[in-house]
Design goal:
The chain is built from 19 helices and no strands. With 376 residues, the protein is an all-alpha fold. It has two domains: 90 residues, Fumarate Reductase Iron-sulfur Protein, Chain B, domain 2 (Orthogonal Bundle), CATH 1.10.1060.10; 273 residues, no CATH class. Helix 6 packs antiparallel against helix 7. The relative contact order is 0.12. The structure holds iron/sulfur cluster (2 copies). The site of one iron/sulfur cluster (SF4) has 14 residues, from helix 2 and helix 3.
Length: 376
């Protein structure tokens, strides 16, 4: 049995769990959860781990990544223990634990720090953008006070450190969930089965492409989403945000490789950027609207990092389309220069800042899904 941590209830509350110690173990939440099954019995089991102070059980679990935060369990809890929010808090806690710099923990648990850090990072990134536009008046003014090389080198160091921290976080995460003790019940060293690897990869790929498990979340008769059109269902909104962002990232890389295709609207990379930009804007707009309307318990409570992420995505998408139109009508105005600066800074912040939160999630979930499918 792992070591018990009596402070764990308070600890997990800092990451967004609400009132989970009110749970009296009735099991309603597990019964309504369509993703909970014999091998993955949640959320009740994980609430017990939290209440009895067993963080290792949580850090070593693949199962917390099977939950899609649909909130059905929170709606059905007779004790208002918000098991769906609790599961989300466990994922934030796990991401924070994998980051040994402590930055993720601060971003999730200290709102004033998160705001200050975001603003300072925006200033640094804005200055960094000016290093490649050093003939602009504002750049000339800035570099009379701060040497160009200082800004350039600090910016470079931030990108390198972020990359290294991400890799270290992924290694730490895998070391936790790749627990050989979970693999060979006979105590023997586990042997990799290649047919199982292929099967698990296929199932993970299908899940990421179609989100079939997430789709099964709204099948309950009393689900708020059961009779809503699929375009408005949370799984589709999530799908649009994920694939919209990944597509835009790919389009940006292709733009960079092929130098300046922004002026050629019919290039495949530009078409990919436009299509995935529409997906991203649609998903981010709907998700923000649901949160503003507090449609269900899931959308009523959100950490500042969740809001930042959605709003940053929306701004990046909006300014991206603005710039695309500016290129079409050939409008090289000062306003469009400012929009370009905002777009670039927000896009870089998305990659840097959320490498510690949301994008860590985007890497950890597929890894956990793969290992779960491998072992079931
Ligand atoms: S439904 Fe609520 S009270 Fe019942 S086990 Fe789940 S969290 Fe606990
Ligand atoms: S939030 Fe949804 S997927 Fe997650 S445990 Fe609750 S019912 Fe299951």
């Amino acid at each position: 049995m792992s070591e018990l941590d009596p402070k764990f209830v308070r600890e997990i509350t800092k990451f967004g769990a609400i009132n989970f110690s009110a749970c009296y173990n009735c099991g309603n939440c597990t019964a309504v959860c369509n993703l909970s099954e014999n091998q993955a019995n949640f959320p009740r089991m994980f609430i017990r781990y939290g209440m009895t102070g067993q963080p290792e059980k949580i850090l070593n679990s693949k199962e917390i990544w099977l939950c899609y935060a649909c909130g059905d369990c929170s709606e059905s809890c007779p004790r208002q223990a918000f098991p769906g929010d609790y599961m989300a808090a466990l994922r934030r806690y796990t991401i924070a634990k994998a980051d040994k710099t402590g930055l993720t923990r601060l971003l999730f648990t200290n709102n004033p720090f998160a705001i200050l850090f975001t603003v300072l990072l925006a200033c640094l990134l804005g200055s960094l953008v000016l290093t490649v536009k050093s003939d602009e008046a504002v750049a000339r003014w800035l570099f009379t006070y701060i040497p160009y090389e200082v800004v350039h080198n600090i910016g470079l160091a931030v990108f390198i450190l972020t990359g290294l921290t991400m890799v270290a976080g992924i290694v730490s995460f895998i070391r936790h969930i790749w627990n050989p003790g979970n693999i060979g019940s006979d105590g023997n060293k586990p042997v990799i089965s290649w047919p199982k690897v292929v099967k698990a990869l296929k199932k993970t790929g299908i899940e990421l492409a179609a989100m079939k498990r997430y789709q099964s979340c709204d099948k309950e008769d009393d689900s708020y989403w059961k009779h809503k059109p699929w375009l408005l269902k949370p799984w589709f909104v999530h799908w649009c945000i994920m694939w919209g962002f990944l597509g835009l990232l790919l389009a940006t890389v292709l733009d960079f490789i092929f130098k300046n295709p922004a002026t050629m609207m019919w290039l495949p990379s530009r078409l990919l950027g436009t299509l995935t930009g529409i997906l991203l804007m649609y998903g981010a707009s709907i998700a923000i609207t649901y949160r503003l309307m507090k449609l269900t318990k899931t959308y009523s409570d959100g950490k500042l990092a969740d809001w930042f992420f959605l709003v940053f995505l929306w701004i990046a998408g909006f300014t991206g389309f603005w710039l695309e139109l500016a290129v079409i009508v050939n409008a090289d105005t000062q306003l469009n220069q400012i929009i370009f600066l905002i777009h670039t800074v927000i896009s870089m912040e998305l990659v840097l800042l959320f490498a510690f939160s949301k994008f860590a999630h985007a890497v950890y979930r597929p890894l956990a899904l793969y290992l779960y499918f491998y072992h079931t």
